[in-house]
Amino acid sequence: MKVWNWMNEHMYLTVFVLALITDFWANWYSYAIVHDWIVLQAFLGMALPFLNLPGILFFIDKKDMKVRLKLCALSALAMSLGSTLMLLMIRAGIGVGKEI
Predict the structure, then answer these.
(1) How many domains does the chain have?
(2) Which candidate, 71, 87, 69, 77, places its Cα nearest to that of 27?
(3) Is residue 12 part of a domain?
(4) Which of 15, 26, 33, 60 is deepest in the core (most CB within 10 A)?
């Protein structure tokens, strides 16, 4: 419960960081499917819903529209950064398989 209490106290930071990680991992999941990395695919597919859970719960719990809009804006910013980081990682050759 200590972790959940901390996340509640730092709701916006929690949503931003988890949205960034979730979007990065979701893009990596798509990359893993294309390259047939089954173990990575399974791990990412299992972890993604749990990373999304706090943001979803915050959104449902907060009834003030301004708070919900802030949560959406933070998520959108984090997701654009997550996608960009994934593309930069692939461009740099990190996490890319090698052909034999």
Answers:
(1) 1
(2) 87
(3) yes
(4) 15
Residue with tokens 């931003």: 16
Does 98 fall in a domain? no
Structural domain including 64 reads 2-91
Tell me, yes or no, whether 100 lies in a domain: no
Task: Decide if 75 contacts 55 (C-beta within 8 A).
Answer: yes
Residue 80, token pair as written in the block: 């654009």
Q: Is residue 99 part of a domain?
A: no
pLDDT in tens, 52-65: 899 999 999 999 99
The per-residue pLDDT for range 4-33, each reduced to its tens digit, is 999 999 999 999 999 999 998 888 777 776
DSSP string, 45-90: HHHHHHHHHHHHHHHHH---HHHHHHHHHHHHHHHHHHHHHHHHHH
Read off the amino acid at residue 100.
I
